[in-house]
Amino acid sequence: MDASVLTISPGRPFRASVATFGALVWSGFRRYATYRQATIAGSFTNIVFGFLRCYVLLAVAEGATGGRPGGYDPAQLVTFVWVGQGLLTVTGIWGWTELADRIRTGDVASDLLRPIPPVTAYFAADLGRAGHGMLTRFIPPVVAGLIFFPFYVPQRPQTVPLFLISVVLGVISSFGCRYLVNATAFWLHDARGPIMLWTLGSGVLSGLYFPLRLLPEWASVALWVATPLPGLLQTPLDVLVERDPPALQLGLVLLQAAWAIALLALCRLVQRRAERKLVVQGG
What we know:
The protein is mostly helical. The protein contains 12 helices and no strands. It is globular.
């Protein structure tokens, strides 16, 4: 049987590029699908922390004036927590140090010799990882929450499509942030410091530990406008629980899209600057 090799033909560059990108996405999916025990253990951990966070926020709601801390009723808080636990692995806020490790060991040189730019290759693989997370790590926490708590049911027809779009944008923004943090190793040679700061800051400022609407209004607005971090988790969750009127709901997703595009563009710019630095250093 003849073996076929995927090549980029001058006559069909777009089709070949799409096929190559799809193959990289599938390889990222398959890579994470091999860690079955880690997937089960991670889902169990997310469920345990889901119960802890849920009861803490319900206690806050019970003690709050009017029972609506930050503008959320108890059902919205429950949905916020459990869907957030499911999205934690989908957006992949933590745990990715592959680029920084390859820079430190020098293996990144082989990445630069490949016909596919590093940003594109890592982005495609990360989409595959997110797809695997959606199938295996998103569903168990949500199902566990549905069994034990009453969820908020969206009332607007546009909410679910906006939520799905917002999740995709959150994955893109998360990849952009993590890539930039890892890329500091081009200049620092050891990115453990920036990665540690990212791990500490992203959980707080993305809405993982508590809804950002519990902060003073000026602080939450400043975070949304000045940083992409609320777009990683807070925006998709606020869209799903319909925390805001329809116009503001759409505006948050558009702001999230602007940050996602800007981060991808910045990743490419930083990568080009890093490649020039490697040439100057003789790398």
